[in-house]
Every structure is written in C-alpha cells, then in structure tokens.
Amino acid sequence: RKTLLLSRHDVTALLTMEVTLPAVERAFLAHGRGEVQMPSKVYLSFEAEGGDLRAMPAYAAGAAGVKWVNSHPQNPARFGLPSVMGLYILSDPATAFPLAVMDATLITAMRTGAAAAIASKFLARPAPKTLGLIGCGVQARYLLDAHRAVYGAGFEVLAADASAEASQRFAAESGARVVSLEEAAGSDVVCTSTPSRTPVVARGWLRPGTHVNAIGADAHGKQELDPAILRDARVVIDDWTQATESGEVNVPLHDGTYTRAAIHATLGEVIAGKRPGREHAEITVFDSTGLAVQDVAVAQVLFEAAQSRGVGTAIDLLGL
Ligand code: NAD
User: How far is ligand 1, taken at its centre, from the CA of residue 166, in Å?
Assistant: First the structure.
C-alpha cells in the first residue's frame, strides 16, 4: 500500500483557483448545515520565537485529514522563510490509512484567498470597482487571484502595506496601485492580511456599503480593525469557537467592547440560506480564521486530481 507524496511543485501543477473555489464553497455549505466534524485548532505558542504551530483536523464529505501549519511573521526577514508553511496528511476514513502527505503551504494560501472571495460574493455589493489590499504579503497574492476568479479583472486594485518595499513589489507583480492605508480602506471590497495586534483600519476610513474581509487575525491577541467597525457592521464569522477565540472579534470580545450577541451569522449559514447576507447599504465584515474543513476539501480534490493525472511520488511509507 502506497502513500502519495505531493511536493510544492506537484501541488502547484495541480491546484488552480478554479478548482479551489467550488471545493471551499462546498466546505462552508457543509459547515453551515452542521454536517462536518471539526474540533477547534490546537495551538503550540512559541512566545520567545514570536510564532505558533497549529493542528487542524477535519472530517467532511467523506474526507478526513489534519493540517500542521505555523504562523511566524519574522520568518521572511530573519530566515528567508515564508511566515506560513504547512503539511497535510489525508487519511482514508474507512481504515485511517494515510492516502497522501502533501505540501499545505499553497493549499493554505489558496483556500484562504478563496474563502475571502466567496464571502465577497455573498456579502459585498455586486461588481466592485475597487479592491483594497491592506497587507501585501503572501496572502494578498491569493486574495487578488480569488477575487479575479470570482469577478473578472474589471476592478482597480489598491495596495497598502506598512513596508513600502512590500507594497511596491506587490504592485509591480500585480498591476496594483500603491496607496495609503486610508485610501485602500476606501475601496468597495477591502481585504486585510497583516499579522497586526493593534487596529490597522480606522472606522472613519470605510465608506457605507463596504465589505471587509478580515483575514490576518487568526490567533489570540491579533486584531486589524477598529472595534467601532465591528459595532457598526454586519459581522459574519467563519466559525463560532474559532472566531471568538482567535479571530478579528477576539480582542474586542475579551476587553468587553464587543458582544457575541452582535455577531450576525457564520458564512456557512449565509451560504446555506439559514441567515440573510447583506440587506442594506451597511458595512459587512467577514472574520476569517481559516477552517480545517476548507483544507480537507481542497486536499481531497488535489488527491483526486493527482491520481487521475499521475502526479506525485507513491512511497511505501508504513511498510505494509
Ligand atoms: P506575510 O508576512 O507574507 O505578509 C504580511 C504583510 O503585512 C507584510 O507585507 C507586512 O509588511 C504587512 N504588515 C505587517 N504589519 C502591518 C501593519 N500594521 N500595517 C500594514 N501592513 C502591515 O504574511 P501572510 O502569509 O500574507 O499572512 C498574513 C496574515 O494572515 C498573518 O497574520 C497570518 O497568520 C494570517 N493568515 C490567516 C489565514 C486565515 O485563514 N484567516 C490564513 C493564512 C494566514
């Protein structure tokens, strides 16, 4: 019995945003219908090193697996490594045999971009004219790709970052225009993807009807938005336990400047039609922490694509 190894190179050859988007939307729908098993992420915190490692198991739609992934914001500057690196183990639910071990760095980036663009599809006003990207690191590239896959290329991309070098490099690659944080926040759809622990976006910078995808806050203590934005907005989270412990809402919930009762719904509930999405010209916020069901859904379609196209290296890992 062989286990399929899929390297970054293999995953890059197989995984497109067009494959990722429907898999991630199906994962949110199943989550919204209560059809998944997904214990909360387990964190190991490396306080001295300024990073963490997480285990993310899930069982959904006949697929089971676990992602082992980190967030080390200092990695690029200090070690020339990405902030986020991941490994996925896909197991057969019938026997628990490890079907595949794969690079999950690209899976993470793609499924995160896809989740934001799906949230935009369900919560933003149609046909945005501007997409503001606050934080121009790895994730910004996939946020942009996913929004292009959903909306086409008919919007202007406004890019802002605390590092001028990061925003300029991103602009040169993507055709974005480098602007101030405030100007980027004035876009129709705004995506924040920074590792910040203090608000980066002020309430007064957002226009009525804006949709914000708050992506960066995915661990306790992280925060990108002025809590006044949450108080004024229709807030949709990805998962109750995860978002309240580690998402954009975690800091204001803990310091008492925001309440659980103010949270509108999960994205899955909106997709499943259990709760309405946007109804007026309000600001909407999607608080993304990243769900294990997104990963298992993408890992499963990757495994199937690898098998049908003969990609990857099969090894007798367990000697069976
Ligand atoms: P990255 O290090 O590649 O990029 C982060 C960018 O943010 C850098 O360009 C940095 O200069 C910029 N930045 C930092 N502080 C800033 C500030 N105060 N104002 C403006 N810009 C600032 O990281 P990445 O891989 O793109 O990840 C970004 C964040 O998203 C991290 O916090 C990561 O943990 C999180 N993340 C969330 C999910 C999810 O599913 N929600 C998935 C992956 C990563």
Answer: 11
Tell me, what's the ipTM? Answer: 0.99
- What domains are there in the chain, each with its CATH number? 3-107+293-315 (3.30.1780.10), 113-291 (3.40.50.720)
Give residue 304 CA to ligand 1 midpoint distance, Å. 31
Region for 68 from its dihedrals, namely left if φ exceeds 0, alpha if ψ lies in -120 to 50, beta otherwise: beta
> Residue 67 catalytic?
yes
pLDDT in tens, 77-107: 999 999 889 999 999 999 999 999 999 999 9
Which pLDDT does position 37 carry in this prediction?
98
78 contact partners, CB below 8 Å, separation of at least 6 = none
Ligand 1 pocket by Cβ (under 6 Å): 71, 73, 76, 83-84, 108, 112, 134-139, 161-163, 166, 193-196, 200, 215-216, 218, 288-290
Helix, strand, or coil (residue 34) = coil
Q: Whose CA is nearest to atom 34 of ligand 1?
A: 71
